[in-house]
Amino acid sequence: MKTLILKIEYDGFAYSGWQKQLNSNSIQEEIEKVLSTIYQTEIKIIGAGRTDAGVHANGQIATTDLENPDKIPLEKITKALNSYLPKDIRILGSAFYETHLNARFDAIAREYIYHISTKEQAIKRNYINYIKFPIDFEILKKSADIFIGNYDFTTFSKLNLDTKNYTCNVEISQWQEIEPMIYRYRIKANRFVYGMVRSLVGTMVDAARGKIELDNIKNCLLQKDRSLNSPLAAAKGLILENIYFADETIFI
Fold first, then answer.
1. What is the Cα gyration radius of the chain?
2. At what angle do helices 196-208 and 214-223 cross, to 10 degrees?
3. Which candidate in 52, 145, 162, 206 is catalytic?
4. Looking at domain 2-105, which CATH architecture does it have?
5. Chain segment 212-235, per-residue pLDDT in tens
6. Where do the domains of the chain lie?
7. Could you give the C-alpha distances from 27 to 15, 85, 162, 236, in angstroms and in order?
8. What is the pLDDT of residues 195-205, one digit of tens each?
9. How far apart are CA 17 and CA 26, in angstroms?
10. What is the three-class DSSP state of 242?
11. What is the CA 65 to chain-centroid distance, rounded?
């Protein structure tokens, strides 16, 4: 038995999210259907990040243990999967790992990016969140620094009864102006709780447009109270960018 590792890119616009759900179309389900077809047995996969409805990915990682890994040569797996998958889901690479690997529990860090723009977009409108108010970029940058460190992110999360621990260690939290009036947020942490990145972005945008003070953001973080949170930013601006493992040979 070997672990099959898949690196996946997808446009989340038409899906209910990564995770398989009843009566909805998910990324996980689409890939499992194709894997089960080509291997002629039921196959379940585990994703490293459970992205919400409408969220995209450049570097999602999924794993599954295969009892008959030699049924399809490794060099043909990516092409075989992509020939059956819808065009808004692409397998970027596939590999075998000689020992068991769980994409969710063995990942040591995840990285997301989020794009906003203060000018309306046509071509990029499904991937950039338009902010119709003027923003102070210096305030935006300073607000990102507040979240670096090991904190309980209950305030900046959506309620999930399966989540028992809301503590995340944020290594990177920073904004860049990548084009005039277009801004990219990058955040890397050991783990993320439900709705966390969109919640942080919503709060930082509120600070940058003068709705809340920077000092109040740190206070809200420490209070661990969801009622203090700003509205979540739109899902379409969010992209799962990278998954990190202790073994750096795994799709870095």
1. 19
2. 150
3. 52
4. 2-Layer Sandwich (3.30)
5. 999 999 999 999 999 999 999 999
6. 2-105, 108-242
7. 7, 10, 21, 15
8. 999 999 999 99
9. 5
10. strand
11. 23
Q: Say which CATH topology domain 108-242 has.
A: Alpha-Beta Plaits (3.30.70)
DSSP state letters, 6-75: EEEEE-GGGSSBSS--TTS--HHHHHHHHHHHHHTS----EES--PBTT-EEEEEEEEEEES-GGGS-HH
pTM: 0.95
User: Is residue 65 flagged as an active site residue?
Assistant: no
Task: Report the distance separating Cα 8 and Cα 119, nearest Å.
Answer: 30
Identify whether the C-beta of residue 196 lies closer than 8 Å to the C-beta of residue 185: no
Residues 179-189 as b/e (b if ≥16 CB within 10 A, e otherwise) read eeebbbbbbbb
Q: Which of 195, 201, 156 is nearest to 175 (CA)?
A: 201
Q: How far apart are CA 168 and CA 151, in angstroms?
A: 6
Can you give the length of the chain in residues?
Answer: 252
